[in-house]
Each structure stands twice: as structure tokens, then as C-alpha cells.
Amino acid sequence: MLYPIYVHPGDAEHAHGVTFPDFPGCFSAADAWSELPAAVQEAVEAHFSGEPDAVPPPTPMEQLVGDPAYVGGVWMLVELDLSRIDTRPVRLNVSLPSNLVHQIDAWAEAHHMTRSGFLARAATQAMAVQS
Q1: Average pLDDT, the chain
Q2: What is the pTM of this model?
Q3: I need a surface site. Which of 63, 98, 115, 122 has the fewest CB within 10 A?
């Protein structure tokens, strides 16, 4: 979803600062303009961690451009991946070989985990290695 952000340009000694009109208390910064989208996404994920229903809809740019609170900077629209905030469980139907399921269940039980917890942990670790 596209959200407006207000960028306070930095200089050789200061990062570009970001204000989120729709997310009071959420701030971000980056040294380079090209780093802003990733920094903004990271800030929003931290601000709303596990609370996807708390994210308000974006304010139309037309309502913001004349606001005297925003001077000396530039407006940008950024695409935010709000699915990365949502930590609610999703039910899946996965087919695995029977012997593998038994091995997973045995390992998970021995480590005081559920099958779902084991699979989530294994997936997270596998993706971290691939990065």
C-alpha cells in the first residue's frame, strides 16, 4: 500500500530524516536516498510489530501538502508491505512423506515444540542461511 512520508534532507554529516504523518511516533533515517525505502519498511515493521490491525489507512496527499507542519523537506510515496507486520497464524495444508512427519514430530516433542513451531523455525533458519 502506498503511504506518504516526509523526508528532511540530510547533508554530508546528517542522515535524511523521515516523518510518517499517518504513524505518530514512527521515525526513520538513511544516509542515502536509495536506502530510504528499506529503512522506512523496517521502521514501520518495528512500530507495528504483530499489530496489523493498528495500521491506519494512508492519508491522501492532497490533505498533507498544504500542512504548515511540513516545511523544508520533500514528500515521497512509499510502497509498504504490510503483510510483513501480520504475525497471525495461517492454516496450511502441506503434504510430506509419512516417515518425515514422524521424525519431525519426534524431534519437536523432544525439544518441547509443536510440529508447527518446528516447521516455522526450520523455515526461518533456512531463509536466513540463503540470504
Answers
A1: 93
A2: 0.72
A3: 98
